[in-house]
Amino acid sequence: MSDLAALLERAPAPPDGAPADAPPSPPTPVAPAWGQAVLVAALVAIDPAGLGGVRVRSQAGPVRDRWLTHLRAFLPPDLPVRRVPLGIAEGRLLGGLDLAATLQAGKPIAERGVLADADGGLLVLAMAERLTAGTAAQLAAVLDRHEVMAERDGFTLRTPARCGMIAFDEGLSEDERPPGALLDRLAFRLDLDPIRLRETEGEPLPAEAVLAARERLATVTTPDTAFESLSAAAHALGIDSVRGPLLALKAARASAALFGRDGVDADDLTLAARLVLGPRATRLPAESPDTVPDPPEPPPEPPDGEPPPDAEDEPATEEPPLDDLVLEAARAAIPEGLLAMLKLGATRGTADAAGRAGAVKQGNGRGRPAGTRRGDPKSGQRLNVLETLRSAAPWQPIRRQGRSRTGRRPVRVEVRRDDFRITRIKHRTATTTIFVVDASGSAALQRLAEAKGAVELLLADCYVRRDQVALIAFRKAAAELLLPPTRSLVRAKRSLAGLPGGGATPLAAGIVAATTLAEDVRRRGHAPVVVLLTDGKANIGHDGRPGRPQAQADAETAGRALRLAGHTALLVDTAQRPSDKARRLADAMGATYLPLPYADARSLSQAVSLAAEAG
Hints:
By secondary structure, this protein is of the alpha/beta class. The chain contains 25 helices and 18 strands.
């Protein structure tokens, strides 16, 4: 039975003679994931502006279309729904100068933007993972203030825009996601990709119940302890933004309105914690032995000759505190992939990872448009004709008067040098992942097989992202470049399969070789990422002489040089037990330290990928 059906069963049944808009039970059973997805759509339809909206991770297809059909059915017929295409112009989004009308009329004429047109309704963002930071900031400001405020094209615009947003995330990997500033203001995060079309059959929730809940929302009351319980759960889950519990409280009010309750109760709070707080978690809540309840004591034996006490006289089972109920509900809703990421301790900073997507660079060559700037169309720079005309249009009446006073021939549109607008182009540099593998005797006896398997999985992942990879191995007295930077997965696997093991550990030589290769990669315009797999036990110095103290000092010196060069680095401690030497080396390198003493090849690959996302 789905979460939606279970909640509807717990909702109070309407008494005899109840109005027709009382919430009914679902007519047909539905799959749990689909029932929850439809429930999210219903809550957004009840309070779109208050909840901000939902991030829907899904590729275009029939499942997403069916979810949108349910959402539209939950909305009043006259509620505006506006689509925001990718790359929408700032004037069309916020409003400003109507260029065509201005050129025709000969005077500035303003137009309303899409945000103002969506007042009271919903915005549908296509490919939200590709939103620019500027557009995301403008949308976030509208969600905060519920109005459009802009000064552009000679106009001062201030129009109401109370609306929610449906942000479709069509990214193919975890590092492709909408900007964090926008995600923080959307209450729900929904993933439709695992849902199959056959699971969307049935009618999870009548539209009449949702429309009635919109009218009932204003009368729902909230207990004083509700926000305290949600805040405590958010703190335990590592949610720093206060928007998390605030949005969860609004989701609880919408839930109470949907299920016909006059006030928010424990069921509404646990539902809000699962849907809003769980996906936002950045750490697992600490488990204390004090939270484990003691087993109940057996009841005392009655004296001889006396009947046993009735069950009605026994004390009722004590309900757990509301804070614990809310926290457990949020904990149970943490997605499986996020749960693995939390256990590995790599959760922050995954949106703009230099190690995954390359550094963003501004330029005038290939890439995506990133706005405009004032300038001359020279040196191969691209003139933006529309923005140039938009810049010149407000000044046409003044320029015509100047021409008439000087006796010059009037022109339809007078464009001057200050009006020229140049298209700014940005592109992401390619990433080259440099794998530095410890193939010495100590590593070969312990984790070389797992390290090889993990590197092979990471090589395949880099191939999918079209990144380049390189492989350096160090053993005996020196480091060797087994594979120069390449995109060939076959060459990479062949080099990895022939990687021998055994001998001493020239750790400093491996780090120096990685630094040299990273500098060469950077000079060729790529973003290097160094992934060092070692147990940290060096015994060969930089000069090739044996000696553990000197070898360890040389390795840390080489690590500091790598850090000063500014390269992103990851150190995977492949020893059976995490060692202080590997941790100190990671600190010297400025690298992310990943102790994985019991990991297999796949978990090692996953941990390195997550740390690379964190940059």
